[in-house]
Amino acid sequence: MKKIIVEGGKRLSGEVDISSAKNAVLPIIAASILSGKKSRIIDAPLLQDVYVITEVLKSINANVNIDKSKKEIIIDTSSVKSVEPDSELVRKMRASFLIMGPMVARFGRFKISLPGGCNIGSRPIDLHLKGFTALGAKVSFGHGHVEAYAPRLIGNKIYLDFPSVGATENIMMAAVLSEGETIIENAASEPEVQDLAEFLNSMGARISGAGTDTIRIVGVRELEESTYKPIPDRIEAGTFMVAAAITKSKLKINGVREEHLKPIIAKLREIGVCMEKEGDSIIVDGNNEFKPVDIKTMPYPGFPTDMQAQMMSLLSIVKGTSIVTETIFENRFMHAAELKRMGANIKIDGRSAIIEGVERLTGSDVKATDLRAGAALILAGLAADGYTKIGDIYHIDRGYVDIEEKLVKLGAEIRRIDE
């Protein structure tokens, strides 16, 4: 079993390059189904989740070529015929569900197993299916699967009860080949949604309003080939910002878009972290006195739920009382118990975590309960006394490209072992 060992107490220095966003590239890979032609993704983050979704596409007869040296993915979906992907692959990762919209748009039907993913709480698919139904699809459930049939999709006005990223993306992809105009109201406005719209438009789609709460899609007959580079990963960037803060270090973080990081930057500055923009880089100086803050996760442009665990690691050693409230997922405090093993003083009260900062954390044996929890434990380990041994690190590999190598280059003592 692979584990990560972190020796704490080391100051970091230098610069780190941020990879393309996992949460942007996954829907882009799914959207490649729509054209029935070739799509070329450059500077792709070659993560476990990326490999899983490309295997999902292979299971419906897509031709996928991954060039690891160039970090390129070339996908040819001209030979895709099946509308029922491999169920075992789908159950590995929730993002597999993103192929529903492209399949019902291009083929008029799909049949897919209920998917898996991180165990961070209920993430119902009713909004996705509500959107497909509004476009004219007939949806039904079987034993462990859902299927839809639509001889043709017709544009419609769709209001989402919650601004779900996945539902917004799936409905947008379904609508690009429909007849007429589709309007998605209360749509998610995350940068990854905007990036998917940019990719679809590069293939000839007609999408406007992405990045706002109202997205308009005018259906087109077909889409063309495209070469595309996804946006930088704002969550990886935020994680390295916290790495600078929690180790009282100064780091230069390259290849970021400041406008995507505003809520993270605002909270870190409120804590006392110094930050300075320099071109497409941000210089983060954590060698300062910190103060406690309150954080409430919200849909974009609010504070991202995917940064909640990492910030909790930092607040665990900030003197005073901080309160973190999670409004997106009801089961996303599992990392609190692991941080408490390291000496953190955290009390969970419903959807809020009350954190009393301690002087120091102590290395311990812990487990990554989900992707971002794993990153939080690495961060805590960087600041802790002694050694921290992290298990279940397959979660971390789902979302961070070469995280150990990047940290080692910054001066961290971190390694992966087989135990």
Automatic annotation (TrEMBL):
One of its GO terms (molecular function) is UDP-N-acetylglucosamine 1-carboxyvinyltransferase activity. Residues 6-407 form the Enolpyruvate transferase domain. The modification 2-(S-cysteinyl)pyruvic acid O-phosphothioketal is found at C118. InterPro entries: Enolpyruvate_Tfrase_dom, Enolpyruvate_Tfrase_sf, MurA_subfamily, RNA3'P_cycl/enolpyr_Trfase_a/b, UDP_GlcNAc_COvinyl_MurA. Its EC number is 2.5.1.7. UDP-N-acetyl-alpha-D-glucosamine binds at R94, R123, P124, I125, D126, L127, D306, I328. Signal peptide: none annotated. One of its GO terms (cellular component) is cytoplasm. Its main location: cytoplasm. Keywords: Cell cycle, Cell division, Cell shape, Cell wall biogenesis/degradation, Cytoplasm, Peptidoglycan synthesis, Pyruvate, Transferase. It is found in: Cytoplasm. Pathway: Cell wall biogenesis; peptidoglycan biosynthesis. Transmembrane segments: none annotated. Pfam families: EPSP_synthase. It comes from the Bacteria. HAMAP family: MurA. Cell wall formation. Adds enolpyruvyl to UDP-N-acetylglucosamine. This is UDP-N-acetylglucosamine 1-carboxyvinyltransferase. The lineage of its organism: Bacteria, Bacillati, Bacillota, Clostridia, Eubacteriales.
